[in-house]
Design goal:
Blueprint lengths: L4 E5 L5 H8 L18 H11 L6 E7 L5 E11 L2 E8 L9 H16 L4 E7 L3 H10 L2 E5 L3 E7 H8 L1 E6 L3 H10 L9 H5 L5 E9 L2 E11 L6 E4 L8 E2 L8 H17 L2 E7 L7 H4 L5 E11 L4 H6 L5 H11 L3 E5 L2 H17 L10 H8 L5 E8 L5 E10 L2 E9 L8 H15 L4 E5 L8 H7 L5 E10 L2 H10 L17
Parallel strand pairs: 4-5, 11-13, 18-19
Antiparallel strand pairs: 1-2, 2-3, 3-4, 5-7, 6-7, 8-9, 9-10, 10-11, 10-12, 13-20, 14-19, 14-20, 15-16, 16-17, 17-18
Helix pairs in contact: 1-2, 3-4, 11-14
């Protein structure tokens, strides 16, 4: 029997189930709420119609995940001044003594302290109800006043996080919360930002967070439907994201890391996630966290220009002098680089970039419209800039959008007009942007890798600027192996197919 549960708002139609519990004295043995008359379904329905209208109460049905069977209720009542009172009962006797009360209590405390932002929760429990006292004590409730028959217990938000940790989701609709969370971390890139995730159209952006004491980890992902199934998978935005934290990953306590993994796995299972794919950021040593799950894959290298050295030292690193000769030749012939910001400039870049993608027969996921570029550039979350190479007639022939965050400058998107490819204007653009980035305080300029992160002609072109490379890894994790295999069978894909793609069922 699978005893995973979830909470959903109680509705009036639940009266057909709950009126039976109201007439069972065993359910109310330890409470003050035992009815002294028979409760009909009509009476229960009328009561629910009234009570569910009250703004100071949040009432939930406790349901089994796989069957959706309603087995009990849990509620927060008398909500005011950031505190509330908790009531809980499992009405279906078949599910007593299975730990479901503990699970339900944890779910509603997560909701109370995260979603409602309450400061404390109180309750009264019968002194002889040892099972209930054990549930509440495990969650961090402490005894307060003790009467003859009942004792009062209480838990604060701080005590709950200290004893249990706190997992929660920040959705894309919670712009302020997402932005504030990212700002609290010590290492993040613009690929973690709310703005960048709001531009993704492949699914539903979510930020999973786990907090415990003074530590926290968050990982942003995109939840996607798997067609013709009840399941989902998760992926990362285009670029380098992965987990972020308020401490260096190597310094996080092992118990905290294990609890993060456990809570994240529970979340994935509850959400019916089959696989997770996340590109990891080559600058943040995220493998210290993700290797515990398994599925961390070496994907090659990214080429990085070290901006902490002088411009002279940087240019000495250009391979065999050919790059620097080309840069100087372009300058002598009147080509120059300038930052651009107007709406017309964004339109021009959109045209150049998308024609570039068409010429390369790139997948649709690499094509973006004007609104995307405009939104990417118009934000205060990070420093995004558009640069053009202009010819002697002030005609823009090559452009790039770069983004600077926490000392890391990312070469995000670049495009060149086909008729100017033979001039290699991107070499001048790369040289000049690196110098501008240095003046803006950037420490590294990440040029990225080759196509599919192979060491191909694109990689070699980038590597002509520097010998410095960082390891690039991705996380490819199968949450539900049974469903994963069934999806492959459904699409007639062999499990041992030798192709660098994940998940295989999306081929």
């Amino acid at each position: 029997m699978n005893d995973n549960i979830y909470l959903r708002p109680l509705v009036v139609n639940d009266a057909s189930t709950t009126y039976k519990w109201r007439n069972n004295p065993e359910v109310w043995k330890y409470t003050l709420f035992s009815p002294n008359v028979t409760i009909t379904m009509e009476k229960e329905k009328a009561w629910l119609e009234d009570i569910l209208q009250r703004p100071d109460q949040k009432r939930f049905a406790i349901c089994l995940t796989h069957t959706e069977k309603h087995i009990g209720n849990i509620q927060l009542i008398d909500i005011e001044d950031q505190h509330a009172e908790l009531h809980l009962f499992i009405g279906d006797k078949d599910y007593w003594g299975k730990g479901l009360g503990t699970k339900a209590t944890k779910l509603i405390l997560d909701y109370a302290f995260r979603t409602l932002n309450l400061k404390y929760i109180k309750l009264s429990v019968n002194r002889t109800n040892e099972a209930a006292i054990k549930i509440y004590t495990r969650q961090g409730f402490t005894r307060q006043d003790e009467g003859v028959s009942f004792m009062d217990m209480k838990i604060t938000r701080e005590d709950y996080i200290l004893n249990n940790g706190l997992k929660y989701l920040i959705t894309i609709d919670q712009e302020v919360e997402w932005k504030n969370f990212v700002k609290r971390t010590i290492n993040y890139d613009f690929y973690h930002s709310w703005t960048y995730h709001s531009l993704d159209r492949s699914g539903i952006p979510l930020l999973f967070v786990y907090e415990e004491k003074d530590n926290f980890i968050g990982i942003p992902l995109i939840k996607r439907e798997i067609i013709d199934s009840e399941y989902y998978d998760m992926t990362s935005v285009y670029g380098y994201s992965g987990p972020i934290s308020n401490r260096d990953f190597s310094s996080l306590p092992p118990d905290f890391v294990n609890n993060f993994r456990s809570n994240f796995l529970d979340f994935l299972k509850d959400e019916k996630i089959v696989t997770v794919f996340s590109r990891l950021n080559p600058f943040f040593f995220q493998t210290d966290i993700m290797k515990g799950f398994g599925g961390v894959v070496d994907n090659g290298k990214v080429v990085v220009i070290d901006l902490s050295v002088s411009l002279e030292a940087q240019r000495k690193g250009y391979h065999q002098g050919r790059v620097l000769r080309k840069v100087r030749q372009l300058r002598r012939n009147g080509f120059y680089v300038k930052e651009a910001r107007s709406a017309k400039d964004v339109e021009i870049f959109s045209l150049i970039y998308n024609l570039n993608m068409l010429r390369k027969d790139a997948s649709a996921i690499y094509h973006f419209d004007y609104k995307y570029f405009k939104s990417l550039l118009d934000t205060e979350e990070y420093d995004a800039r558009l640069f053009f190479v202009y010819d002697i007639d002030d005609y823009p022939i090559c452009g790039a959008i770069v983004v600077i965050t926490n000392g890391i400058m990312q070469a995000h998107l670049i495009g060149t007009r086909a008729e100017y490819l033979s001039y290699s204007p991107a070499k001048l653009l790369t040289d000049e942007i690196a110098n501008i980035g240095r003046t803006l305080g950037a420490k590294f300029y990440n040029l990225g890798g080759g196509l599919g992160f192979k060491e191909d002609s694109l990689y070699n072109w980038k590597a002509s600027f520097t010998d410095l490379t960082f390891e690039y890894k991705s996380w490819r994790f199968i949450v539900n192996d049974e469903v994963y295999k069934s999806l492959l069978i459904k699409k007639e894909i062999k499990l041992d197919t030798k192709v660098d793609f994940f998940p295989l069922y999306r081929l």
